[in-house]
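Input record (one chain):
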Amino acid sequence: MSLPELSSIIGRLESVASRLETVALSGTGGDGGADSSVSVDLFNAIISNALANYLAKSGAIGGEVAEQAQLVADTFHLSKDVVSTAVRCSKPADAELAKLLKPLSDKIADIETYRNKRRASKVHNHLAALAESSPAFGWVLITPAPAPYVKEMLDAATFYLNRVLKEYKGVDDNHVQWVKSYTALLTDLQGYIKSNHTTGLAWNRTGSPAKAVQSGGGPPAPPPNLPPPPTVAASTGGADKAALFSALNQGDGVTKGLKKVTSDMQTHKNPALRGASVVPAKAAGSSGGYQGTAKAPPSGEPMIQLDKKRWRVEFHDNNKSLLVEVKDKSESVYVFRCNNSVIQVKGKTNIITLDQCKKSSVVFEDVISTLDFVNCQSVKAQVTGRLPIVNIDKTDGCQVYLSKSSKDAQIISAKSSEMNILIPRDDGEYKEFPVPEQFRTSFDGTRLTTDAVDTMG
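The corresponding structure, as predicted from the sequence alone:
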C-alpha cells in the first residue's frame, strides 16, 4: 500500500472518529443541541435500511398489511422532520409545540383507526400488532426515557406478532419475515434514540424558536408527534387513543382538570370499595375533570354474523342469550366490545377471542387452538370439552372454569391481574387457583432465574 493511500485511509478514519465523538456528546438528549448532520443522517439511515426492509416485506404480503405499513412510513418521515427542526431550533412553548406535533399524532391515530375498521380482516393480527405499538412512533415527546418507552411498545405488540408466527410459520415465510422486519425496525429505532436522544428529543438551545424558523421562509415546518404517555401504553380502542391525543394537544392544560382522589375513593380508608372493580362515580352534577381514560360503553350496531371463517359477535350490551353455532372446526369466534353479556358457542371451533369486553362470559365445548382474552375487564369462560391453551393479555379480572379433560391446559398471561383458574374436583365442585401476578428474579451466577411469589392467605 502506497503512502498516499495510507494517508487517505487515516484521514477517513479520523473523520469517522470525529463524527462518532459528536454523536456521543450530543446523545444526552434534553436541550443539549445535537449535531444536525449526524443526528438526521442516522435517522435517515433507519429510513433507508430498516424501514425500507419492513416496507418490502409488507409489500410481499400486500393488501391491508402494505397499506398500514405506508402509514408507519409516514410517521417516520414526519419524525425525521421533527428531528431536523430540533437540531436547528430551540424548543418552542408548549402551545406551539402541540401545533407542531399534531400532524404526527394524527398519523399515529390513523394506524389505530385502520385496525379498528378491519376487525374481520384475515390479517387482523398484523394490523393489531402495529396498532398496539404505534405510540412508539411518537417518541419525540416522551421524557425522560424515550428508548425504554419504544421497547415497552414493542412488548405490547409481541402478543399479536407471536400469533402471526404461530399461524404462518412453515406455511408462508413472507409473514415470518414480516415479523422479523418489524421487530428489527423498532429495535433500530430504540437504539437510535438511546444514542442520540437519551433523555428526550434534543433541541438546539442556541437556535431560534421553531415557530420563528417556520415563519421565516426556511424549510417546511416539521410536523412533530404526540404519543400517549408511558402509563397508557396498553390503551384500548382507537376512540380512547384519539381522545388522549386531543387532550395532550392542550399542553400543560391537560392536568388542570384532574380530580383529587378524596378519602371516600380510597380503598384502604373505605373497606366497602375493596370488592368493587371501580370506584363509584360522584352524583350527577358534581364537577368533573378530564375523563380521557374512561371506558366507553359498546358503540356500534350489535351483530352476530359469519364473515368467511370468523364469527363476529360485536357491540352487545346486557344480552345474556347470545348463541353461536359453529359448523366447521376451522371457524373462529371473535367477541368484540360486549358488555354484561353471555355468549354460548356450540360445536368445535379453532379459536375464541374476547377483545375489549367487560363483565361478559363465554361458554363453549371444544377449542382446537387457544382461548384469548385481550384488553378485557371482569370476564369469565367455561369449557365443557377440550381446551389446550389460554392466553390472557392486558386483562383485569378473569376466571376460567376448566373441564376434567382440560386440566392440563397451559395458561399464558401478560400484563394482567386478578386471574383465577377453577379446576373440577371429583365431587363436581370447583377448586380455585390464582394465577401468580408477582415474581421474584435473581442472578444465579450465570443467568437470571424467575420464580412466582406465592400470595398470602
